[in-house]
Amino acid sequence: MITSLLDTVQGVDPLRRTLLAGLAVMLETSVLVGLVVPGDTIVVVAGTAVSSWPEGVALAAVVVAGSIVGESIGFALGRFLGPRIRASRAGRLLGEANWERAEGYLLRRGGPAVLLSRFLPVLHSLVPLTVGMSGFGYRRFLAWTLPACVVWAGLYTGVSAVAAGTFRELADTVSYAGYLFVAVIAVFLVLVVIAKKGIERAERRHLTGGSRIGP
After folding, report:
1. CA 6 to mean position of chain CA atoms
2. How far apart are CA 117 and CA 63, in angstroms?
3. Which of 107, 117, 155, 207 is the least crowded, having the fewest Cβ atoms under 10 Å away?
4. Range of the domain at 197
5. What is the per-residue pLDDT across 104-125, written as a single tens digit (0 to 9) for each?
6. Looking at the domain assignment, is residue 133 inside a domain?
7. What is the pLDDT of residues 141-155, one digit of tens each?
């Protein structure tokens, strides 16, 4: 079954699936679309179809570009339409508490908040908007978000590609190859969740921290 699923994904034109992954991440990181578009899932699926290192590098590069474009759109909309978006129906449905959380996170941590938000649920969609509404400059924003996007893209594409490649190599000789593939992906996702929870707990411990935007 796993072989069939991987073959189905690999059967999609490489250019098409790469562009689809970039588009999904762009939508995930712009405005509030990230709350409903599973960009990380699409990147993992696309990563399982990688058959060579140039293809993997191309996928990671497109994912990084999609992330930067999406976050830049969020920044620009925050700069010019932030209060309107916050007061819109979608903004109200998200909840004022989440907006205040994003604002407080940025005020307490400054640039590192931009970097870390890429790995956190909800905040990865709200922080670019919030940064745009603040006095944060775009170049400064880009300097913090670019390395986060590179690390994120490298992790998701790399782990999924290595797991799928290892499965294909072992599938004909090792009976438990399918379980190994599932275990690698599952362990990676569990570690991601643990890391996110750890960052969120650290954030809560600093709720009473300073209010000045940091470096």
Report:
1. 22
2. 17
3. 207
4. 2-205
5. 888 877 888 888 888 877 777 7
6. yes
7. 999 999 999 999 999
